[in-house]
């Protein structure tokens, strides 16, 4: 993991506040994530975890404060700029996979690169390499409905990695999986982090947090309530 203090953070949130009508989802959050870190965000339902992830992903905008990811101040980007940012800078893994049911695994993965202008043949080559690295190249022509939950999440991870993102975001990545498939996805995330992938995980699963993350941030009522290092757990 990269511990060079001079390295520019991949993520920097400064005094971020997010309101939905009269409700305050985040209230003055400051956060930095450095290259190669794996940071887990935990907290009760409604604490602001998913809002935090959505702001870093450029899926939502703060009411005040700044969100900077990989040098991009997201507040300065229009909707088209945010869409390009999401495709090029970040990978996202969701609880329920969000795969396209009418495309086989290989095309689900390759599509992420084709949307950024990568030629189809080149995209398919990289997609196959990723599926092979994740141990499911043999399922490349299989549609999501015929894949197990663990296989679907591996396809989703491959898709998230397709454009070599600066940051991988995971929203409850083991939430829809049985314990064995969940363990496999945890191993996968840990392996990715160990080869230098920066991770931001939102999870209810303390085992996932302590297994995969180097730092745990607890959010309560829209504020960072506690932060601790988990390096000793790895």
Summarize this entry quickly.
The protein has 234 residues and is of the alpha/beta class. It has helices at residues 49-56, 79-89, 105-114, 120-133, 149-161, 179-194, 206-212, and strands spanning 11-20, 23-33, 38-42, 64-69, 72-73, 90-93, 167-171, 199-202, 215-220, 223-229.
Descriptive notes:
The protein has helices at 49-56, 79-89, 105-114, 120-133, 149-161, 179-194, 206-212, and strands spanning 11-20, 23-33, 38-42, 64-69, 72-73, 90-93, 167-171, 199-202, 215-220, 223-229. It has 234 residues and is of the alpha/beta class. Strands 6-7-8-3-9-10 form a 6-stranded mixed beta sheet, sandwiched between helices.
What are the main properties of this structure?
four-stranded antiparallel β-sheet; 234 residues; alpha/beta; 7 helices; Rossmann fold; disordered N terminus; 34% helix; globular
CATH evolutionary superfamily = P-loop containing nucleotide triphosphate hydrolases
Radius of gyration, in angstroms, nearest whole number: 17 Å
Q: Note the run of SSEs as H and E.
A: EEEHEEHEHHHEHEHEE
The strand order across the widest sheet is 6-7-8-3-9-10
Count the beta strands.
10
Instruction: Estimate the helix proportion, in percent.
Output: 25-40%
Task: Report the major sheet.
Answer: 6 strands, mixed
How much strand?
25-35%
Domain count, please report it: 1
Do you know the CATH architecture? 3-Layer(aba) Sandwich
Provide the CATH topology. Answer: Rossmann fold
H/I helix tally: 7
- Specify the structural class: alpha/beta
Shape: globular
Uncertain regions spanning at least 5 consecutive residues: 1-6
How would you name the oligomeric state of the polypeptide chains in this document?
Answer: single chain
Main CATH class: Alpha Beta
């Amino acid at each position: 993991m990269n511990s060079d203090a001079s390295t520019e953070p991949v993520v920097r949130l400064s005094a971020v506040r997010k309101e939905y009508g009269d409700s305050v989802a985040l209230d003055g959050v400051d956060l930095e994530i450095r290259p190669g870190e794996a940071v887990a965000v935990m907290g009760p339902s409604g604490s602001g975890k998913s809002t935090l992830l959505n702001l870093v992903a450029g899926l939502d905008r703060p009411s005040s404060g700044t969100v900077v990811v990989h040098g991009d101040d997201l507040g300065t980007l229009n909707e088209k700029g945010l869409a390009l940012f999401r495709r090029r800078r970040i990978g996202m893994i969701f609880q329920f996979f969000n795969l396209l049911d009418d495309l086989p695994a290989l095309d689900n993965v390759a599509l992420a690169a084709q949307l950024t202008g990568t030629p189809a043949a080149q995209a398919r080559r990289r997609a196959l390499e990723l599926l092979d690295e994740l141990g499911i190249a043999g399922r490349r022509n299989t549609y999501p409905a015929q894949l197990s939950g663990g296989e679907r999440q591996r396809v989703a991870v491959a898709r998230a990695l397709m454009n070599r993102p600066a940051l991988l975001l995971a929203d409850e990545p083991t939430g829809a999986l049985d314990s064995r498939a969940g363990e496999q996805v945890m191993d996968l995330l840990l392996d990715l982090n160990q080869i230098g992938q920066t991770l931001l995980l939102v999870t209810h699963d303390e085992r996932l947090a302590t297994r995969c993350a180097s730092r745990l941030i607890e959010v309560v009522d829209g504020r960072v309530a506690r932060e601790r290092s988990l390096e000793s757990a790895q």
